[in-house]
Design brief:
Chain lengths: 343, 222
């Protein structure tokens, strides 16, 4: 019965997946000498229609912006065909993560007294909402909630982190992470409510996401005044590392300890290959995410592929950004470090 | 509802005990009553008389139910298959328009399921003919047999085609999706689909065999 409502969109998103850059494309792109070459190469791919009208001095940020436009284009198509009820909520939930990022970006930018228009340019287009421009004017959390966010779906996530403090660097990070925690929890609840295959695949990927955030929070908070309890409070209350791994993470005091906690958890096999050299936890996690997301496409009749599609596109944008930056700055030998081919 | 909630929540509430208890009591009472004898040595429930009701049902009713099952369930199966395949095909064709004409085959496979149903319904319908009642108002054993045979045949064909249609439809939708990604896969999945659609044919064959001996009138009388 899945297909009555959602078969069309599912097939469409699968069609979009066919447009991802493949391993051959990446190895060809690595041969490019200038950013202009990259642009030329990309015109022959799915990005062609978006790139060809751009004026000539190409800048890496232009390529990235085009890629983002591509995501928005695909996504607005999903909106256009009017997804039926449970799916439309699911798609909305996918946007909330970007909204949170945008809010944080705006608030941080405003703190450093940047231009609002410049900041708006940097926001992720999927996370836009009406009142976002007024974010620059707020000075504390209560105001932020009352003036700007009350109309957005994010406001529900504010409940627990509702304090009267002024905004500063640390507070904003805490805000971001506690918002994200509430968001993940809500998303998890939604996907479990949908049941069936969706619940199964989304559980896997959201647990992974929760774990990754926990690790990131730990790494970022090492050496700051964030207390252990506060740190633990930011961890999601589900995930493969919940609760033992998270308790251990909360106690970590340096990077080696974090690695050893991860090795002791379910993620030991993904870390094994990279522990020997100077490794980059971020990259390992990204690689795993790509792997998990592409394996989602092996199953049919579930909503997970929309999530996977978005995450893979995100990775592609990261790849292209890294690639074009490397080429623009003439550091081609570093390309391999940052690019994770998807298929 | 309360029963299900009580059992799934892991412990039995007071309402649950009440419901389980009353269901037990009532069913026990019925059992005892039905086998106990009343004063003049009659059973309270006369099973033989109850069976008579079934035996007295007109064989033409049975054959009508059988025929409508054959065509109705087949069409449900075919429609189910077509909407599964069709929606996926339409979506996948946006990015890969070349797949449409090839994958119409999947739709045709689903359609075939409905055609099986139509064929069997027509065959069964031609076997139904008027047979006079016996002098006591009942129908002859031959007529009764024919009615039951057509019922069985129709249900067999209908159910077989229902699940066959779902099967072909699901495989067909995967076929469209994978063809869009990699054209080499089309023929391989088509083979799976052909085997899936053979299932419906088994039902048709068995249904025709079941109804093979149907004759409402005694051939000797004709």
């Amino acid at each position: 019965m899945f297909n009555t409502k959602d078969g069309f969109l599912e097939a469409t998103v699968r069609g979009c997946v066919g447009g991802f850059l493949r391993t051959e494309d990446y190895s060809n792109l690595q041969q490019c000498e200038t950013v202009e070459d990259i642009k030329l190469y990309l015109t022959s791919t799915d990005y062609g229609s978006l790139l060809q009208n751009e004026a000539s001095p190409t800048h890496p940020s232009l390529i990235v912006r085009c890629c983002l436009k591509k995501i928005v284009q695909d996504f607005s198509f999903f909106d256009l065909v009017k997804a039926a009820e449970p799916l439309s909520t699911f798609l909305q939930y996918l946007k909330y993560g970007y909204m949170i990022d945008n809010i944080v970006l705006m608030v941080t930018g405003a703190m450093h007294e940047r231009e609002v228009t410049e900041l708006l340019d940097k926001c992720h287009p999927l996370g836009m909402f009406d009142s976002i421009a007024s974010l620059g004017a707020v000075s504390n959390l209560r105001e932020l909630h009352r003036i700007v966010l009350v109309d957005t779906p994010i406001s529900a996530y504010f409940g627990e982190c509702f304090r009267d403090e002024n905004l500063d660097e640390v507070n904003i990070e805490i805000l971001r992470n506690s918002l994200y925690k509430a968001y993940l929890k809500d998303f998890f609840r939604l996907s479990q409510m949908l049941g069936g295959l969706t619940a199964e695949v989304m559980k896997e990927i959201l647990c992974f996401e929760a774990d990754r955030r926990a690790v990131n929070i730990t790494i970022n908070s090492i050496g700051t005044e964030l207390s252990r309890d506060d740190r633990q409070k930011l961890f999601s209350d589900f995930g493969h590392m919940h609760p033992e791994g998270q308790r251990d993470l909360a106690l970590c005091r340096d990077f080696e300890q974090v690695v050893s906690v991860i090795v002791n958890s379910t993620y030991q096999n993904i870390l094994q290959k990279s522990t020997s050299e100077e490794m980059n936890i971020d990259k390992v996690f990204y690689e795993t995410e790509v792997m998990k997301c592409s394996s989602m496409f092996a199953q049919q009749f579930h909503y997970g592929i929309f999530y996977a599609y978005l995450k893979l596109r995100e990775q592609e944008v990261r790849n292209l950004m890294w690639l074009s930056e490397c080429i623009a700055q003439d550091q081609k030998y570093r390309i391999v470090d940052g690019v994770i081919s998807i298929f | 509802m309360v029963l299900v909630k009580g059992i799934t929540s892991g412990f039995l509430t007071r309402e649950t005990y009440l419901i389980i208890g009353s269901v037990f009591t009532i069913s026990n009472l019925l059992l005892v009553l039905s086998f106990s004898k009343t004063t003049n040595n009659d059973k309270l429930i006369d099973w033989e008389y109850l069976g008579l009701i079934f035996r007295r049902i007109n064989p033409y009713l049975w054959s009508a139910i059988g025929i409508s099952c054959a065509i109705g369930l087949s069409v449900v199966g075919a429609a189910w298959g077509i909407f599964i395949t069709g929606s996926s095909l339409a979506g996948a064709a946006i990015k890969a328009p070349r797949i449409t004409s090839k994958n119409l085959i999947s739709i045709i496979f689903c359609e075939a399921v409905a055609i099986y149903g139509v064929i069997v319904a027509i065959i069964l319908q031609t076997k139904v003919e008027f047979a006079p009642r016996m002098p006591d108002g009942s129908y002859s054993d031959r007529s009764m047999f024919s009615g039951y045979a057509i019922l069985a045949s129709g249900i067999t064909v209908g159910l077989a085609n229902l699940v066959c249609g779902i099967c072909v439809g699901t495989v067909g939708s995967s076929c469209a999706l994978s063809d869009a990604q990699n054209p080499a896969l089309f023929v391989k999945i088509l083979v799976i689909e052909i085997f899936g659609s053979a299932l419906g044919l088994f039902g048709v064959i068995v249904g025709i065999i079941i109804s093979g001996n149907v004759a409402f009138k005694n051939p000797a009388d004709a």
